[in-house]
Amino acid sequence: MNEVNRVTALHRCAKLSRGAAKPPREQQQHTNQEHRKTNASSSSSSAGHQSLLLDPTFRQLVAAIRDELGALSALGLANAAWAGAVLGLERWHAWAAAMEAALVARPVGEFKEQELTSALWALAKSEMGSCAAFAPLLQEAWLRLGRMRPNQLAMLVLAVAEARVHIPELMIDAFEALEAGDGVAQLYSNSAVSVLYALARLSYAPPEVDGLVAGIVERLLRPEGEQRRPALESLSPREVGVCVWAMGSIARQRLASGRGVEGPVRSLVAALLARVENLPGTLTPMQLANVAHGAGMAQMSTEGMLARVERDALRLSADGALQPGDMAHVAWALATLQGSRASPRFLAALEAQLAEGGFLAQSNAYETTLCAWALVVAGRRRVDVFAR
Questions:
Q1: Cα distance between residue 330 and residue 366, in whole Å
Q2: How does DSSP classify residue 89?
Q3: What b/e readout covers 142-153, taking b as 16+ CB neighbours within 10 angstroms?
Q4: Whole-angstrom Cα distance, residue 170 to residue 242?
Q5: What pTM, to 2 d.p., does this model score?
Q6: Per-residue pLDDT, 359
Q7: Most CB contacts within 10 A, which of 148, 203, 270, 335?
């Protein structure tokens, strides 16, 4: 097996680990919950993924690719970076160091636009946005904005958001390039969510981007396909959660600046919440936190969505699957949306967790404050639960 075949094998492992063989354009997104960065994909924590990372043959494959990264073409290097990011190989220090060195050594002019954006997203996803390779690649991508296709622009702004590299001039140029022609109309549904997420994660929603947001909202609400269903119907449950969070964050920023939340934005949030009601199975902890937090920030809800959030939160809490941050955001959202009527059963479960002491030991100050605020708003003022 030569280096091309090895990279292809790694790339396919990455796609399979995500639960479906999706093309590289459908990049994984994260949710920022104000105080921490967490993975919004359940696949990375699955038993199958963990088994793959421990498999001796797979580890030999990774080691072989790592040792020959410098000999790969720009395409091969970008594909290896993307696959490594999806698989979480940055946790293996030798892989991260070798990838950084190979990207630094490769002249940026050799990368095509898709390869640039893939490599940038991979570095950002791997929390390597501060490494020596990121800035030169980003500068080159900036120079080529006019040559990028809409979905490549979406991946670029997603990478910038993931890396928390907020350069307003770059974002303005990227969004202007995206709005040129019918760029927004050409976005894949998941790419449209990526742009909304980037705006929300960077807390960047000035009036200048209102037109872009309106275009994306229209894109997601527009019927398509033979059945003429809204584009948002094609979003995965994970993407629905991310989109609810992003739209909630954008709505909150507009409200804070004294600007209203116009009809189309409210229509999209309402449509997303309606989808939440009918999603199969139990929401993952991150999907649950995204939906609850986003609805709370947008100050919008439906009875069905609230019932779904309460049901899944209680189920996950009983299974010990909810982390303190997830519970805090669900509690905050329920209290924000329902006030004193907020779910007595879930808040009782939260109080029980707080009383055990271990919950507070795992929580940061922000999460503890959210819990306290939610309990007070709901009229549950047991100071003793915070005594430990």
A1: 14
A2: G
A3: bebbeebbbbbb
A4: 23
A5: 0.85
A6: 82
A7: 335
Do the Cβ atoms of 92 and 53 come closer than 8 Å? no
142 vs 63: CA distance, rounded Å: 33
pLDDT, tens only, 197-208: 999 998 877 788
Residue 127 pLDDT greater than 50, yes or no = yes
Please name the residue that has the structure tokens 């909150």: 252
- CB-based contact 79:114 (threshold 8 Å): no
Among 160, 157, 212, 144, smallest CA distance to 183 is for 212
- Could you identify the residue written with the tokens 């969510």? 193
Read off the tokens for 216: 């994306």
The packing angle between helices 365-377 and 344-356, to 10°, is: 140
Distance (Å, whole) CA 344 – CA 347: 5
> Helix (H, G, I), strand (E, B), or coil: what is residue 32?
strand
Any bridge partners for residue 32, and if so which? 37
Give the whole-angstrom CA distance, residue 26 versus residue 79. 14
160 close to 167: Cβ distance less than 8 angstroms: yes
- Secondary structure of residue 279 in the 3-state scheme: coil
Q: How far apart are CA 85 and CA 87, in angstroms?
A: 5
Q: Decide if 35 contacts 329 (C-beta within 8 A).
A: no
Crossing angle of helices 303-318 and 285-298, in 10° steps, is 140
E-state strands within the chain: 30-32, 37-39, 223-224, 229-230
